[in-house]
Design a protein that fits this description.
Elements (H helix, E strand, L loop, with lengths): L7 E5 L7 H11 L3 E6 L5 H11 L4 E3 L5 H15 L4 E4 L18 H13 L1 H10 L5 E6 L12 H21 L4 E8 L13 H11 L8 H12 L10 E4 L16
Parallel strand pairs: 1-2, 1-4, 2-3, 4-5, 5-6, 6-7
Helix pairs in contact: 1-8, 3-5, 4-6, 5-6
């Protein structure tokens, strides 16, 4: 018996074995959930399929989340294979590289639109389709970052997208709560992933976080996966509309300095 025995999950956003979405997938599988995966582009296929095969996952679908038709088609296939689901994980985010780093005032209109479309808006149609497949209630969760609340160097347009995402989570929590569906946000500290590699100065962010976070340690994909398994379980049945930080306490700091700096 596992914490999620008998539950079915759909995870959007697996990119490779170092992605946070894969850490979540592994935790869900460990707790005996059945899992289906969705990935973004053909270039990721060669990375995702071997992972799925090794884990015994036989539902793997490509989905461009900027397309309402592809989102609908993916959930139609989910209905055909699973009948219903209990868990939806939105681990999807993207911004053009030129919109990260540099001056915030130089963010382009098109870059802004694309970042918010993929990273924020896509949760809404996903949640709409998922809700139709959750007759017994369920758990929906998205991935954010502390830059949604406070200014973080070079995060720029993605910070705006994460702020929008967190507000979407709150509105969905209010909208879907009467159906017994909970909607929450996971907000990990910095983790080495394919997406993070596109943020200028990311290595310095990792080093600084480890030095000043109250726990004096970096978080891992496994840590986030464990938190996701909790939110997906009945242990969290009265938690909704919340942002759960998995960052070693970094978010409570008013001054991010080591004792040696003071």
């Amino acid at each position: 018996m596992g914490l999620l025995d008998g539950k079915t999950a759909l995870v959007f956003g697996v990119a490779n074995n170092r992605s946070i979405a894969w850490g979540i997938t592994q935790a869900l599988l460990r707790e005996k959930a059945a899992v289906g995966l969705s990935y973004a582009t053909e270039t990721l296929e060669k990375r995702v399929f071997p992972l799925a095969q090794e884990a015994g996952i036989d539902f793997v679908e490509k989905c461009d989340v900027t397309s309402d038709e592809q989102i609908a088609a993916t959930f139609d296939k989910v209905r055909e294979q699973f009948g219903k689901i209990d868990i939806l994980v939105h681990a999807v985010a993207f911004a053009p590289g030129e919109e990260l780093g540099g001056r915030f005032r130089d963010v382009s209109r098109e870059g802004f639109k694309l970042a918010l479309d993929i990273s924020s808006y896509s949760l809404i149609p996903m949640a709409k389709h998922a809700a139709d497949l959750m007759p017994d209630g369920g758990s929906i969760m998205a991935l954010s970052y502390y830059a949604a609340e406070k200014v973080m160097p070079r995060y720029n347009v993605m910070a705006i997208a994460k702020a929008a995402l967190e507000n979407i989570v709150r509105y969905l929590a209010a909208d879907l709560g009467p159906q017994g569906i909970r909607v929450n946000t996971l907000s990990p500290g910095p983790i080495k992933t394919l997406a993070a590699a596109g943020i200028p100065g990311f290595r310095s962010m990792l080093s600084h976080s480890e030095k000043v976070a109250p726990m004096r340690t970096l978080v891992s994909q496994e840590d986030v996966g464990n938190a996701a398994a909790f939110l997906a379980s009945d242990w969290a049945k009265h938690i909704t509309g919340e942002t759960l930080f998995i960052d070693g306490g970094y978010n409570v700091l008013g001054l991010t300095a080591t004792e040696e700096d003071l």
